[in-house]
Amino acid sequence: MTARRDFLQLGGLMAAGLTLLRMPRHAARADEPDDCAPPPAPGAPVPFKPDTDLGIRTRKNAAALPRAEADRLKSAYDELRKLSKKDPKDPRGWLQQAIVHCWYCGGGQNMTAGEEIHGSWWFFPWHRCYLYFHERILGKLVGDKKLTLPYLDWADANSRTLPSWYTDPNDDSNPLFDGNRQAKPGDKLPDQYVGSTVMKRVMGQPTSDLFMGTSAFLPRPAGGRLENGPHGAVHLWVGNPSTLDPTPDMSVLATAAQDPVFFAHHANIDRLWDVWLQDPTAHPPHMNPPDGRWLSHRWTFYDEEKKLTSISVQDVLDTETSLRYRYEGAPVMAAKKIELTAKPLSQKIDVPTEPSLVYVLHIEGIEVPPTKSAVVRVFANLPTATPETSIEDPHYIGYFTILAKTSKVREQHKSHTPTNVMLDVPADLGKMLRGKPEVEVTLVPVAGVSSRPQDVKLSFQRIRLTVTK
Ligand code: C2O
């Protein structure tokens, strides 16, 4: 970790020197700050609360951003830069915003530094938090609570150049321009970094360790395939497409967030996290790290009112309910919860077309209140099933239980962490499903041996069937 940081800092210094020698066409702006420590907090951080008055905002593809929205984004960054000039210590200003990223890549001074959030499983959730607060600050500055960051979908062969908003005009009069950026209008990101061959491999990583990075608590944590592959390549390319040498701002972590392109790049990274999680062809399904230390981890950010806010990984997993945004074109089912009461509930789902020996039924995103337990029997193509239906019935798949977490509600047990259940489909039943387009799955809550429970409070996000070979 330390060695890597030294390398990046050294790279940054060398590149800064080179940039000066080369005399860029546009004067370089502020560079790597001497001290990345955030402004001192006036008091203890307040816990994050979802802004439920805010409607769901849509982050749009930068390649097709309506002109009016691009203009508003420009005004917002203009205000951000002005704020920084007016009060360099305002934590919401442009330079302080960039400094947040510097601090969290271990770039402090005098032996103090923020936690390193690159190169491990912190990468995705930390950047999601960062973008959220940055976006709310931008919105506040232009009086538009609905403002969103666009995303740069560089995997799409038709959007491999920087959108014109960032480069037109390609000088300091454009708040989305960055004087240190070497990528010019019309420069094209190469296939080797972000083309379909690369992206197929990256998005097909089967586990969170491989896709998202491993636990930061390991002696040698590793970043995931997206972070260490296309994410880094786009940073390097924006900084300097001709050499891929580290050039501030984008290709050096400590200065990367001084280029507004950073935030559109990371909106895409953030979007790809969801795309990976929701990949319907994945078997077993892609999942976040099932680890309480990941879920309960917290960071602090200044919000749009300058309030220091403490936010956890758990707080940002459901972007619609909690952070009030979604991505254009994202499947809608993701954040919708289906409620299961004491009554059986049936749902039709697709049967995968690939031939298989064993089907696996997944019930995902199950949540129950912490003081409740549940026992649920699952049937295929038997919508009339009740608690009295025999478990010898050929349509019976199996059952699952959810154990209450506590008998008393305590602070730390506010909610049950969503869980996912897998049930293998018995072979004979599997044979009946083969070749069929869909199957109707019925969930039957039970109490005791064969009675209907008094009161069941369970929700889940989806049911799906996968195959194992
Ligand atoms: Cu925090 Cu793209 O790096």
Please tell me about this protein's structure.
The chain is of the alpha+beta class. The chain has two domains: 305 residues, Orthogonal Bundle (di-copper center containing domain from catechol oxidase); 131 residues, Jelly Rolls (Sandwich). Helix content is 30%, strand content 16%. The chain has 13 helices and 14 strands. The strands form five sheets. The protein has a four-stranded antiparallel β-sheet with strand order 7-12-9-10, with no helix packed on it. A hairpin with a 5-residue loop joins strand 3 and strand 4. The radius of gyration is 25 Å and the shape is globular. The N terminus is likely disordered. The site of CU-O-CU linkage has 8 residues, from helix 9.
List keywords for this structure.
alpha+beta, 469 residues, 16% strand, four-stranded antiparallel β-sheet, 13 helices, binds CU-O-CU linkage
Helix content percent band: 25-40%
Broad CATH class of the largest domain: Mainly Alpha
Instruction: Compute the CA-based radius of gyration.
Output: 25 Å
Could you tell me the strand content as a percent range?
15-25%
Q: Provide the low-confidence segments as ranges.
A: 1-28
Quickly give the structural class.
Answer: alpha+beta
Number of strands: 14
Per the principal axes of the C-alpha atoms, what is the gross shape? Answer: globular
| Number of discrete domains | 2
Task: Report mean pLDDT, rounded to a whole number.
Answer: 87
Biggest sheet: strands side by side, in what order?
A: 7-12-9-10
